Amino acid sequence: MRHFLDFEKSVAELEGKIEELRHLSDGEELNIADEVGKLQTQAEKMLRQTYDKLTPWQRVQVARHPNRPHASDYIDALITDFTPLAGDRAYAEDRAIIGGLGRFRGWSVAVIGHEKGNDTDSRIDHNFGMARPEGYRKAQRLMAMADRFGLPVITLVDTPGAYPGAGAEERGQAEAIAESIRSCLGLRVPLVSVVIGEGGSGGAIALAAANTVLMLEHSVYSVISPEGCASILWRDGEKARDAAEALRITSHDLLEFAVIDGIIDEPLGGAHRDSEATAKSVGDAVATALDGLRGLDGDTLRTRRREKFLEMGRNGLA
To answer: Rounded to an integer, what is the distance from CA 241 to the centroid of its chain?
Structure first.
């Protein structure tokens, strides 16, 4: 069943009428093709008008859409011979971050991503994409393995932020995130990151300190969630809409600031409306990025990656 966001109500009504017409079956010969065609054209026009003028807060809602493709969906679509690897070899397995080895369009690669899950049980199992320290230490282990064997690394970012629980803090959450960022910056192999949904706080940058950082068109990427920002600045979570405007968290804002390197277009109405087409677009963009990095030696890859993020700091964007 298709899930509609609040600002899509008018589109939902039209698509509801289309479904009603399609399911008419009262035994009479009804020629409804013309009427359905007109309604489809009208619905597509309305959807395009809506998505052409999305506010930052509406983009947050699209990025969090329950049917939006997750890391596991992209791995299934793009990675063949995928072998998942688990555990941090120190404490436990954290299902909020998944990863392993496989082949991407003929290249052997390591893939690491945040996984939110797609129903109640799987979301609980994956802790809604909020990793604990062991998740980031698993990511470090996989990056070290990729570096050792000369495998490019692809990361898929989709998290509201690292898990803020007491247990996570007791086990060194901040240190684990910092070490994960350092692992990214120290790699001597190509690292390409794609923000596929939410890129929240240090939990996101822990996997996204990459040579090339890409964002899906309706994804968001920020130092803090709009709700968290609102609660700190105004002590009022209801001001999340204002915070989203102020944070400049959209892909177009971040490309303008040179925080990211490219935007991947989404199908009309968002990635959740055509996950297959979205996966192909992501695959094409990642392949192009890897093509541009494969000829560089390890020292150059590492130096350029570090300089890229240092330059953001010099420009006052860090």
So the answer is: 20
Tell me, what amino acid is at 34?
A: D
Neighbouring CB atoms inside 10 A of 86's CB total: 14
Question: Which whole number is the average pLDDT over 288-317?
Answer: 88
CA dihedral sign, ordered 40, 284, 65, 197: negative
Residues paired with 195 in a beta bridge: 157, 215
Closest to 203 (Cα-Cα) out of 239, 155, 243, 146: 155
Model confidence over 182-222: pLDDT tens digits?
A: 999 999 999 999 999 999 888 999 999 999 999 999 999 99
- Alpha carbons 272 and 210: distance in angstroms, whole number: 26
Token pair, residue 154, equals 């692809």
Q: Which helix or strand (DSSP H or E) is residue 16 part of?
A: helix 9-22
Q: Are the C-beta atoms of 199 and 208 separated by less than 8 Å?
A: yes
From the list 215, 180, 179, 188, the residue with the least C-alpha distance to 199 is 215
Instruction: Kindly give the residue spans of alpha helices, DSSP state H, lying in 163-235.
Output: 166-170, 173-186, 201-208, 226-233
Strand partners, 102: 109
Sign of CA dihedral 247, 136, 180, 190: negative
| pLDDT tens per residue across span 73-94 | 999 999 999 999 999 898 999 9
Q: Find all residues with CB under 8 Å of 25, minimum gap 6, and list them.
A: none
> Do 78 and 88 meet the contact criterion of CB atoms below 8 Å apart?
no
Residue with tokens 């804002």: 253
> What is the amino acid identity at position 317?
L
Closest CA to 192 of 230, 143, 229, 122: 143
